Amino acid sequence: MKEFSWPVRVYYEDTDAGGVVFYANYLKFFERARTEMLRSAGFEQDRLLSEESVIFVVRSISVDYLKPARFNEQIEVSAKIIESKKASLVFEQSITREQDVLCNGTIRIACLDAQSMKPKPIPIAMLEQLT
Q1: Could you say which of 16, 46, 100, 113 is catalytic?
Q2: Second CATH level (architecture) for the domain 4-130
Q3: Residues 67-119 pLDDT 10s
Q4: Is 100 a catalytic residue?
Q5: 3-class SS shares of the chain: helix, strand, coil, % to 5
Q6: Which run of H or of E encompasses 25?
Q7: Which helix (H) or strand (E) holds 35?
Q8: What pairs with residue 88 in β-bridges?
Q9: Within the chain, where are the H helices?
Q10: Which sequence spans correspond to the domains of the chain?
Q11: Which residues are listed as membrane-spanning (predicted)?
Q12: Which band of pLDDT confidence, cut at 50, 70 and 90, is reported for residue 2?
């Protein structure tokens, strides 16, 4: 799948006392974009849980904060799969405001069996659709 982009408005609750997005909230923006990417491809995480006993968890993350996002700004959050394995995906993500790159991240997601919490292969239909 090519790069997915999701528009986000920065709300007051996303910011610190100075009106700048709190650093941990960039991770929430990344999470929402990955979820919307899956949804746009036809995969709802609650259905994956109930029908496939599959959950996805963050295994590792690397983030570079380059410029601040501020209260009430419109930003874009992108997500692109750059690596897929039997039970994991690696996403490259960025947050931009017009031409400015505000934040970049690389996130490894593991696919787990919801009951045992052990690695489980990503459903074939999902891999075929996303990669």
Answers
A1: 16
A2: Roll (3.10)
A3: 999 999 999 999 999 999 999 999 999 999 999 999 999 999 999 999 999 99
A4: no
A5: 25, 45, 25
A6: helix 23-40
A7: helix 23-40
A8: 85, 110
A9: 23-40, 45-52, 124-130
A10: 4-130
A11: none
A12: confident
